[in-house]
Amino acid sequence: MPEGDKKNIAMVNTMTMTMTAIHPRRTERITLRRNVQLVFRGSHGRVDSVPAATYSVSCHGAGLYAQHDYPMGSEVFVIDSQSGVGAWARLVWEGKQMNDGRIPLGVEFQHPANYWKTRLVPPSWLPFVCGRSYSHPSIDRVVVVGKTKPESNSADAPTLALVGESCRCCGTVVEVSRVANQEPLCRVCRQWPG
Fold it and tell me: Where are the beta strands (DSSP E) in 42-152?
């Protein structure tokens, strides 16, 4: 990574911490790297679709990198490539262009929600997520689950205990195993639907 980009990222992190101290966030941000599409309505009614990538997200918005800049206050439709969910947002912050051409942007959603469909969320997200939740014993996070606990049919499938591999849901390395043709999960996360 070029030295200029490292300085710019450090400046963005410092500004984020300073702004958080002055204006506390409504919901905690989590580091989440996802490819997204930003759909803007440009001047003259033309629609522009711009690829971007998030670096941190919350229920109220996201920090992301894009190759194009748009006027502050522009309405944008953010589409998450992984969950397929989109939401209307407003461009509320723009940083200095980095050496590789990326521009750090901040967007704020019109209606807060877990548009990222992450199951492992900070406690401050709970008012904005649906379904039940429980505290994970290994980490300081809450796991959001579906409305009902699934019927367990994993007794028929052989389970392979994994040492040193992390759970794809919560990241813990405690009691992680893999059932045939599935991703590694810890004992607690394996009990809930994916």
Answer: 47-57, 61-66, 75-80, 86-94, 103-109, 120-121, 133-135, 142-144
